[in-house]
Specification:
By secondary structure, the chain is of the alpha/beta class. The chain is 54% helix and 12% strand.
């Protein structure tokens, strides 16, 4: 030891050319290699001066199997990177030359390091691993030079020059695939070797024959791994920060390169700076490591949190500002602040000190809205790398080095400059407004702008759940009778205490002191109740309700990053209750005696306050951590908007599937048409062959020899026509085969669509179920609302909720929250009387509001009732007359009068308060319920008022019946449809003779309405034939039963409900819209709205007798009908599309016979005829029609390719009105049709 001290003293006095370094003021992570002059003579390991031993540097092996480019790299990003790498390579080459001339130039050094950092970071991002790792080795070397751990010797500068010469080759290899000629592994190893040792020291290793024992070998191995760790740890940090793996979940760490020990196994430990037995320095270091005791589980959580925020820091630092500097962001400041807090909580001083040094300048910069230059950006990158290295040392149980003095001084200098700058700012810029000062007085010291969002989110979620459970338990305890079993009372109080203890611990973790203080005082109060020092009383219950209400407000403020309301006043009130020491509570003696037995039945809690404080003081409890990990495995948190998008997408898939089904069905119909065409073609070919054979027989010459011996056909004397007919026959057979194949494919497609439909249905059901939440989630909030509103109005009211276990779509529940709250406020403001009035009326002093949730088919029924005085019908009527909504002498039912409160701006309040009286509310409630596809009914009596809201179970996908009224199609949701029946026309006519048509069906009476009349489709009534049965849909909504007479029933469909805009949502009778498979948009009708109002924005309800009379009148067609007769499918389709576009109905026929058959059912306004058609051509059909009295007045337009004079004259002679040639002009055709169809 004495020799070592003497050696060090001599080393400190050495001057050039012996640059033996002075001991570093801070310990280095790697073991320091020292020279021993007194080593044994046979040993040939020595530290020599760099100038004389440069050729004896031991090159450190590196991984030579790195890919030039990872598979799957983005070509666009790669192209951008190549341009950047070429530019930085040129910069490095020029900067290296400048640095070589001026080694003291720190700017050149930092710029070179920044260039290597850019090549490395962007290279790893794009997947260029070979050039990225190459740049990282030299960046690590320069980092040590900047930190004064390595001196900028000629060897280091020359190594940078060598790297600058090789970089263009690496870029070219990445760009064109040209192999690099230089030994990349050698150059990288050289950089690693230079970075491993201090300047002036070069490890010269020669072979030695001396053997060493196994223990020394183990020491060598451990030391070498420790030496290698620093450089590799920074590489891993960059890999974690910049190169996520394909899964995007876990970061892949490249294992350290193996360190070759082939020539070091015979070296004694002392000669490579390893500790010898009894070395006091090493023993002291081991003691330091042992003293740092950190809970292993906390260490893992700490590592994960720091790693997460280091990634955030790295991502910001890798995106410099436009000027190449650093523009601080809230994200960067928050990440470093969180690392600082976590490190100090875990008592990791070195990282906490560095994070503090990095945090303070950022805070000042954000306050001043200023930025930093490129030097500060490099400083923060060095700080980031240092924190990562120290974290890695901590996780690998290595001693954490003290903070680098150079790094510390650089940050302190930066902070000093900013402080000086801050002093010079104008004084008036720092003067806060009075309003801001007032706001600050309310702010809790724990609520700052730098929230740890992740920790706050976890706390908010847990706190919300705890407060909901506490509210339910407190409500149950408050309602317990004095005669209730004592153990049940005790168990409820213990449960409340446990909830508050958990809330207090979470609040302390998240640093919400106002919440933790109030929770602590509540917990102490419940302990006093348990110990029978505080009695259960109304004052106690009221104080507890107020305290839990305040906690809910504070949690909501924390969620919105707002200052917390002070708990001081409420804590004082609780302290006063607790200070009233009761000698003995009449219900508790037995409880206290049996406390131990009761505690065994209740979930365990900590036994004393000291245990509470000890548990809370630990940053992470083992049990909480285990529960959190379990919950993370069992539950996946999904944003509600993402879930809504998924449900909407599933609905769109249903629409596209329906369209595909329609396309496949249409394809199948066309295949049937193709089959008919093939059969017709086969018949034509057989006729052609028979005709050709007959002609051969007649035209054969009288050849005696042939007559006696052979038939002409036997001599194969076929004509060209016969050969063509046979070829056509073969082609027809091919068409038949193709038709069969296509038919099989259509069947397969239909099967696949059916399977897809099943899977899609399961997907939709699963997504809809995932959006279902229990109504009980609103219980606590609604109770708080009732308590607060009652207190403001000096009334008393209790809220009772039944059926809150029913599940409702979260979207429905969220949108119903405001209407429910408004109804509750109205019930207290207008319904519930004051305590004195209630007592005078013989009612209980406290009013009762009941919310009952139930299911009725596919509806969720929500009834909100109160036992107040009901709606003042006289007052409502007077207000309606005043507003001109009702005639002064007009008599209507009381229930109809009550509906006026749903009108906009309607209010009967005598004065405006914070609760009611503005005339804004109930109309919004009704509109909101209607937009959800629901209905709202109001009934009132002197004993109270009942609001009944019927809501759809889900808003996403519903089943509906499509109906036709006139020429329009509408959808009726199945939720209220009881059945569908058909009624004889004569019976329907008798019913319409009644004053109020009522249909008796299955023992029930249904009010009969005609849908077309409700919609005022007066021009679309159909003729009722005595033998015809008309469809009637039976609906029920609550007590309302309706029989809806419709024109046409189109069938059942699965529809995706689309919300209406604000404009259409105001139209009574419409609840939504949907898109059908053919792209047609249909409106979803609200029949209740149509019936209840009797008059809609579509029109006025018709008199039943008038409806019946009009139904007997001949049908009035709203569109002209054109019949297209052509054997060409293409012609028929083209004409159909053209005529539909011009508002004509089209009937098609494939030939004359088909046209005559259809004329029995259809009387067209105009007929379009082709001439050449099978079975009956155009001339024959036109002649037949002109000879028939029923058809002779139908105008005929003949469209044909035969445009000769002969054909025209013949058509005119028959009686054709217009003659046009193919191809025709569309405008001319439409003009001719318009002229003839008048």
């Amino acid at each position: 030891d004495t020799k070592k001290k003497d050696t060090k003293k001599k080393d400190t006095k050495k001057k050039e050319p012996e640059p033996e370094p002075e001991p570093e003021p801070e310990p280095e992570p790697e073991p320091e290699l020292e020279s021993e002059q007194e080593s044994e003579p046979e040993e040939e390991v020595a530290l020599e001066e760099d100038d004389s031993a440069s050729n004896e540097i031991e090159i450190i092996p590196v991984d030579e199997d790195l890919p030039v480019l990872k598979p799957g790299s983005d070509p666009e990003i790669l192209e951008i990177y190549l341009e950047e790498a070429e530019e930085e390579s040129e910069n490095i080459k020029q900067l290296q030359q400048d640095w070589k001339l001026h080694p003291e130039d720190d700017n050149a050094l930092k710029n070179i390091r920044r260039a290597f950092h850019t090549i490395k970071g962007s290279g790893r991002l794009v997947g260029a691993m070979k050039i990225g790792e190459f740049a990282w080795d030299f960046e690590s070397l320069l980092n040590r030079v900047i930190d004064k751990a390595v001196e900028p010797t000629d060897q280091v500068i020359d190594a940078i020059g060598l790297a600058a010469a090789v970089l263009p080759q690496l870029v070219d290899e990445l760009k064109n695939g040209t192999p690099v000629t230089e030994d990349i592994a050698y150059i990288r190893g050289l950089a690693k070797a230079l970075a491993e040792f201090k300047a002036g020291q070069v490890l010269a290793i020669r072979n030695s024959q001396k053997k060493i024992d196994d223990q020394a070998l183990i020491q060598v191995d451990d030391a070498v791994i420790e030496v290698e760790a620093e450089a590799e740890a920074e590489a891993e940090a960059e890999a974690i920060g910049e190169a996520p793996d394909e899964s995007g979940n876990q970061q892949e760490e490249t294992p350290p390169d193996p360190f070759v020990l082939s020539e070091m196994v015979n070296m004694p430990g002392g000669e490579v700076g390893l500790p010898l037995p009894g070395d006091p320095a090493k023993e002291e270091e081991q003691d330091d490591i042992t003293d740092l005791q950190i809970d292993p589980e906390l260490l893992v959580i700490y590592q994960q949190e720091v790693e997460l925020h280091l990634n955030t820091v790295n991502s910001v630092l890798e995106q410099p500002a436009v000027d190449g500097g650093l523009q601080p962001t809230e994200e960067l400041y928050r990440a470093i602040h969180t690392i600082n807090g976590a490190s100090r909580t875990a008592d990791i001083t070195s990282i906490g000190q560095l994070a503090t040094l990095m945090e303070n300048p950022l805070k000042i910069s954000l306050e001043q809205s200023s930025g930093f230059d490129g030097d500060v950006l490099e400083l923060y990158r060095r700080g980031h790398d240092a924190i990562f290295q120290m974290t890695k040392d901590l996780v690998e149980h290595r001693k954490i080095p003290e903070l680098s003095e150079t790094l510390k001084k650089d940050f302190e200098s930066l902070l000093e400059q900013m402080d000086n700058h801050t002093v010079e700012l104008p004084e008036q810029d720092n003067q806060p407004s009075n309003q801001f000062v007032d706001t600050l007085t309310m702010m809790n010291e724990s609520i700052e702008a730098d929230y740890d969002d992740e920790l706050v989110e976890i706390f908010i979620e847990e706190a919300t759940e705890l407060l909901d459970m506490s509210d339910h338990t407190l409500h149950t305890w408050a309602e317990q009778d004095e005669s209730i079993d004592d153990s049940a009372n005790f168990g409820l109080v213990m449960e409340l205490q446990r909830y508050l203890h958990t809330l207090k611990g979470g609040a302390k973790m998240a640093e919400f002191n106002e919440i933790s203080d109030l929770s602590h005082e509540l917990e102490s109060l419940f302990i006093a109740v348990i110990d029978a020092r505080v009695e259960k009383s109304d004052d106690l219950i009221d104080a507890l309700h107020d305290s839990f209400d305040l906690l809910s407000i504070q949690v909501n403020q924390a969620k919105n990053h707002q200052p917390l309301e002070s708990s001081a006043k409420q804590i004082d009130a609780l302290l006063q209750l607790r200070s009233s020491d009761v000698e003995q509570h009449k219900n508790y003696p037995e409880i206290i005696e049996n406390k131990e037995s009761v505690e065994s039945d209740v979930s365990p809690v900590l036994s004393s306050e000291s245990d509470f404080d000890e548990a809370v003081s630990s940053p992470v409890k083992e049990e909480a951590a285990n529960d959190r990990r379990k919950s993370e495995r069992d539950v996946v948190k999904v944003r509600s908007e993402l879930l809504d998008n998924l449900v909407n997408s599933a609905g769109e898939v249903s629409i596209y599937r329906a369209r595909m089904e329609q396309q496949v069905s249409s394809f199948g119909s066309n295949l049937g048409e193709l089959g008919s065409t093939i059969i017709r073609l086969k018949n034509q070919l057989r006729a052609l062959e028979a005709e050709t054979d007959a002609q051969i027989h007649f035209s054969h010459k009288d050849d005696t020899e042939l007559k006696q011996s052979f038939d002409p056909l036997e001599m194969d004397r076929y004509t060209q026509i016969q050969e063509l007919s046979k070829s056509l026959g073969e082609s027809v057979d091919d068409l038949s085969s193709l038709q069969s194949i296509l038919g099989d494919q259509v069947k397969d497609s239909e099967t696949l669509l059916l399977q897809q439909s099943r899977i899609n249905t399961d997907l939709q059901d699963g997504l809809i179920r995932s959006r279902m939440v229990r109504f009980s989630g609103l219980t606590s909030r609604l109770r708080r609302l009732v308590r607060k509103t009652s207190s403001e109005l000096a009334k008393k009211a209790d809220l009772v909720i039944e059926g809150d276990q029913h599940e409702v779509d979260i979207k429905v529940l969220d949108r119903m929250l405001a209407p429910i709250e408004h109804i509750l406020r109205n019930s207290i403001s207008h319904g519930i009387e004051s305590p004195i009035e209630r007592v005078n009326k013989g009612k209980s002093e406290s009013g009762k509001i009941l919310i009952k949730v139930s299911r009725d088919g596919s509806d969720v029924v929500l009834k909100i009732s109160d036992d107040g005085s009901g709606v003042n019908v006289r007052k409502v009527r007077a207000r309606a007359v005043e507003l001109g909504l009702l005639g002064e002498r007009e008599e209507i039912d009381e229930n109809d009068v009550v509906q006026f409160i749903l009108e906009p701006g309607f209010s009967t309040a005598d004065h405006v308060t914070q609760v009611a009286g503005r005339g804004v509310g109930m109309d919004v409630v009704a509109s909101g319920i209607k937009q959800l596809g629901g209905t709202l009914q109001i009934s009132t009596s002197p004993q109270g008022t009942v609001f009944t809201a019927r809501l759809p179970f889900t808003l996403s996908i519903n089943q509906a019946i499509l109906v036709q009224a006139g020429d329009e199609s509408f959808a009726l949701p199945l939720i209220n449809i009881e059945g569908i029946t058909r009624i004889e026309s004569d019976q329907m006519a008798e019913i319409y003779q009644q004053e109020k048509p009522v249909l008796d069906y299955a023992g029930q009476q249904y009010s009969l309405y005609y849908l077309s009349s409700l919609l005022d489709a007066s021009n679309s009534f159909k003729v009722i034939d005595d033998a015809l049965k008309v469809p009637v849909i039976l609906l029920r909504s609550g007590d309302l039963r309706v029989a809806l007479h419709i024109d046409v029933l189109l069938g059942n469909r699965e529809i995706v409900v689309k919300p209406l805009g604000k404009l259409l949502s105001q139209v009574k009778g419409i609840s939504g819209a949907s898109i059908l498979a053919d792209g047609l948009v249909v409106l979803i009708l609200d029949i209740n709205g149509l019936i209840r109002h009797g008059i809609t924005s579509f029109g006025v309800t018709r008199d039943p007798v008038e409806i019946e009379e009009e139904m007997q009148q001949p049908e009035t067609k709203s569109k002209k009908v054109v019949m297209v007769v052509d054997d060409s499918i293409t012609m028929r389709r083209v004409a159909t599309k053209l005529l539909n576009r011009n508002n004509y109905d089209v009937v098609t026929a494939k030939d004359g016979v088909d046209a005559l058959a259809q004329l029995e059912d259809v009387n067209p306004d105009v007929m379009l005829l082709d001439i050449e058609m099978p079975r009956m051509d155009g001339f024959e059909l036109a002649l037949h029609m002109k000879n028939e009295a029923n058809y002779r007045d139908i105008p005929i337009i003949m469209i044909t390719s035969r445009t000769g004079t002969k054909h025209r004259e013949h058509a005119k002679k028959i009686g054709v009105d217009k003659y046009m040639g193919k191809p025709y002009q569309e405008e001319e055709l439409i003009e001719n049709i318009s002229a003839l169809a008048r």
